[in-house]
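Query structure, 752 tokens:
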């Protein structure tokens, strides 16, 4: 970082910001934003809609917002001497917000930032010591290169994911596994989990975090008396409202909407300690979490959000051709990640320091305000809203939610067919606007890699929303080159854990990115496979030794070669091989299913509490899709030299050891429920604990096997390198004539 001006000049500029800058137009603009938001909510006639549909489409907390917004408008009047005027004055004080005088530029690179690289080296020292304890190996015997990089991630799912994830992480913390991991990653409720863990409230203890939740989740986030009371309580109200004031006052183009208010309500519940005395201001910025992770003593948290790229209607075919053909006219999601170090987007291959989130950029550089200062980092309350804004879904998503309860309506078939035909249009419409933050890529034409959509350069703000719109497990950031994850442990508390296979969603991503080692096909098995097919696959895959497996693989390869030869013969004769009018193509579902049966690599019909898959780094030279991964049954399968990423998957399932709670049937576990009694928290915690206990030893064996494989490969490399050195020395002696030279005193006769 660099300073744009001297400290004294900045301080002088800061003190010059007072009541004069808090003009009436700013007050009017804030009031207008709040009025429009409240008016939009008030205009909805909730009684005109069936309650079932209303609950599915519109969260009930939104109905309580109009009264709340009226009170909020009074608090943010920006009048001289008001709370908002005090907030804005402190926002311009570099002694309180030092980042406002730091210069920032956009870093264009697909490499990890320097701060994360330093963290990885420092974290390795801690994970080496923790792994020795976890596996019962003397620390001095562990080589740092053998220590696997372990990542742990949680799913989306609102408070259900927050509470269940906290319990799962607590179980790993008590088992010694959590100290072995390098990264955590979250979507939606799991982002809330990470943000709370790195606060002074939880003190980096999941046990304290759970106790905090038991005290704070008993009241609805939008319950007017409780929510409004916090806006009247100093200094808590100042800390909670600071982000909104800074956003609205600093950027005339900034939108203020439901997501911002939602984040404020979440913060009032989650970031306020028991007793509601005050909020720790240090807990309200993501970059401040560096105080817990610098030095490597804690894992690096990764928060996620997505932007919905909707191609412009007037975009030319030449511009569209910069993207892959199948994506030309379709909308897609761009993933953005936040760490305490950097805010970065993979598709843009660019990012900025996290402390610079919230300021405006132009052509890759900070756009300074008229007083020579920038804006403070975007506060955590606004980020909580963005990360958990699943209600910003598209009309297509909403229809999929309500479709099951519409199937009994008269004429449903025709309606369903009509909507299906318009899905390409429905997936581009968001009834509720996502939140907006300044776009760091604004006007960076020709400065980013080719293929970036034009809209990125022309929009002053990024509209970000819940990453669960794309994938409810944050797999993609953990597969980023440079993070080199060996083991991914996923705790999936998704509401649709058995119907939406979030692990398999990643298959297309890894193919597109050319990522090696991902276990293709991991997750819940496809419903089209019959039990007989699954039984045959499992029987074919059953092998007790590596030699037997190699023999079976050889047989499968030969069978596949014959099948391919037959396919070529059919193609030459004009037969598509299907006989049902379907077209022949690489990756056809029938062909892929046949491939899986030949290779004996299918997953079982149902999954258990703990499931392990292993990928492969081998190059596939034959045509067709790679074989589907199967569940790991024997530890030696993890030891193959070409083994790739090991995925350990814990779905949040009912468990007979914890009666009275079922994630698929218990009403209070709905994603849209925002009230948990202490007893309900205890039930969720007990269920998550019981599920982890089911796979505790399998997880330890998996970690041990991956460690042993890395150790074996390192020792083989070292032996190979030593053999090369020995051979080089031998050749050098031969060239210099030293090899075979007779000793001193020898006369060279045949008796010597």
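Result returned for the query:
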């Amino acid at each position: 970082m660099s300073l744009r001006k001297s400290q004294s000049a900045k301080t002088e500029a800061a003190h010059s910001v007072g009541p004069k800058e808090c003009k009436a137009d700013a007050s009017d603009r804030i009031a207008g934003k709040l009025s429009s938001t409240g008016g939009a909510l008030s205009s909805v006639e909730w009684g005109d809609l069936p309650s079932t549909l209303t609950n599915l489409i519109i969260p009930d907390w939104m109905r309580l917002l109009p009264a709340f917004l009226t009170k909020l408008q009074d608090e943010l009047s920006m009048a001289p001497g008001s709370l908002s005027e005090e907030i804005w004055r402190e926002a311009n004080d570099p002694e309180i917000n030092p980042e406002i005088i730091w210069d920032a530029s956009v870093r264009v690179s697909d490499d990890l930032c320097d701060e994360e690289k330093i963290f990885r080296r420092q974290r390795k020292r801690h994970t080496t010591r923790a792994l020795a304890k976890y596996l019962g190996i003397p620390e001095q015997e562990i080589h740092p290169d053998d220590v696997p990089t372990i990542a742990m991630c949680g799913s989306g799912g609102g408070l259900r994911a927050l509470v269940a994830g906290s319990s799962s992480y607590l179980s790993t913390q008590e088992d010694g596994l959590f100290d072995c991991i390098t990264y955590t990653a979250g979507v939606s409720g799991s982002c809330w989990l990470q943000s709370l863990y790195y606060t002074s409230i939880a003190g980096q203890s999941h046990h304290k975090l759970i106790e905090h939740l038991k005290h704070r989740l008993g009241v609805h986030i939008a319950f007017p008396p409780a929510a409004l009371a916090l806006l009247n309580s100093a200094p808590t109200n100042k800390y909670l409202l600071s982000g909104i004031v800074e956003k609205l006052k600093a950027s005339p183009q900034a939108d203020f909407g439901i997501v911002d208010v939602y984040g404020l309500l979440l913060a009032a519940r989650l970031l306020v300690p028991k007793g509601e005395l005050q909020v720790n201001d240090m807990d309200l910025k993501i970059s401040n979490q560096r105080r817990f992770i610098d030095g490597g003593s804690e894992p690096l948290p990764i928060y996620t959000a997505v932007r919905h790229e909707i191609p412009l209607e007037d975009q030319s075919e030449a511009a569209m051709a910069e993207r892959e053909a199948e994506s030309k006219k379709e909308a897609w999601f761009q993933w953005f990640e936040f760490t305490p170090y950097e805010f970065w987007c993979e598709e843009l291959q660019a990012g900025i320091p996290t402390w610079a989130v919230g300021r405006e950029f132009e052509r890759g550089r900070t756009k300074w305000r008229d007083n020579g200062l920038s804006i403070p980092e975007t506060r955590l309350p606004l980020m909580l809203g963005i990360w958990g804004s699943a209600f910003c879904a598209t009309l297509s998503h909403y229809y999929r939610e309500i479709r099951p309860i519409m199937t009994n309506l008269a004429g449903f078939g025709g309606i369903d067919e009509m909507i299906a035909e318009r899905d390409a249009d429905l997936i581009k419409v968001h009834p509720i606007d996502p939140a907006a933050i300044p776009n760091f890529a604004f006007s960076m034409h020709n400065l980013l890699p080719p293929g970036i959509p034009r809209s990125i350069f022309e929009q002053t703000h990024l509209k970000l929303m819940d990453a669960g719109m794309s994938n409810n497990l944050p797999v993609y950031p953990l597969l980023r080159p440079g993070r080199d994850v060996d083991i991914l442990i996923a705790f999936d508390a998704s509401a649709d854990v058995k119907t939406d296979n979030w692990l398999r969603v990643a298959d297309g991503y890894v193919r597109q990115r050319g990522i090696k080692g991902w276990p293709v096909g991991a997750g819940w098995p496809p419903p089209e496979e019959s039990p007989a097919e699954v039984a045959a696959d499992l029987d074919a895959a059953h092998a007790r030794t590596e030699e037997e497996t190699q023999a079976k693989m050889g047989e499968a390869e030969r069978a596949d070669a014959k099948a391919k030869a037959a396919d070529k013969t059919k193609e030459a004769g004009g037969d598509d091989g299907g006989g049902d009018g379907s077209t022949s193509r690489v990756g056809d579902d029938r062909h892929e299913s046949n491939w899986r049966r030949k290779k004996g690599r299918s997953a079982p019909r149902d999954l258990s509490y703990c499931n392990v898959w292993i990928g492969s780094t081998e190059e596939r030279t034959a045509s067709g899709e790679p074989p589907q991964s199967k569940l790991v049954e024997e530890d030696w399968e993890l030891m193959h030299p070409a083994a790739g990423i090991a995925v350990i998957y814990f779905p949040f399932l009912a468990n007979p050891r914890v009666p009275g709670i079922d994630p698929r049937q218990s009403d209070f576990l709905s994603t849209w429920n925002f009230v948990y009694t202490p007893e309900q928290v205890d039930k969720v915690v007990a269920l998550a604990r019981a599920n982890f206990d089911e796979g505790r030893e399998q997880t330890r064996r998996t970690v041990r096997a991956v460690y042993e494989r890395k150790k074996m490969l390192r020792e083989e490399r070292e032996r190979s390198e030593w053999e090369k050195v020995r051979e080089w020395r031998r050749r050098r002696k031969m060239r210099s004539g030293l090899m075979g030279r007779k000793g001193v005193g020898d006369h060279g006769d045949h008796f010597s």
